[in-house]
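Explain my protein.
***
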Amino acid sequence: SFSGIIYNYDKEGVHRDETGWEQCISVPLVQPDMFGLLHQWDKLLEEFSIGEDWLPHRYEEHEHNCYTYALAFINSVLTAQGKQHMSKSEFTEKFVIPQTKRASKYITLHQELMAKEFYIVHHPEQEKQC
């Protein structure tokens, strides 16, 4: 179960929501070498979110949006760690795509179970062991 606050950015500015994100995909961002940041994470996110870049009038649907907000925050943390920034494509490939592929598999499985009440997977390697 989830507990916490979801920070997000849209044409109305930065929002801090406690509900309404039950259908979202969680993308783990803190690597083992960054665990020291966990206790500072909320403070860093709040400080980042009050910046002028995230005022409502700065929002632009394709170029300055919630994705930009998330990536800019991640890059601000990387900067604080003395690490190199990630590009949109690197972030998408490294973090977003693996999680969406996993979610897609679970959604497909769920749909099959709801429709048929069972799901069969063929494992040729198991047949060889018999």
User: Anything to note?
Assistant: The helical segments are 41-49, 66-80, 88-116, 124-129. The chain is about 45% helix and 10% strand.
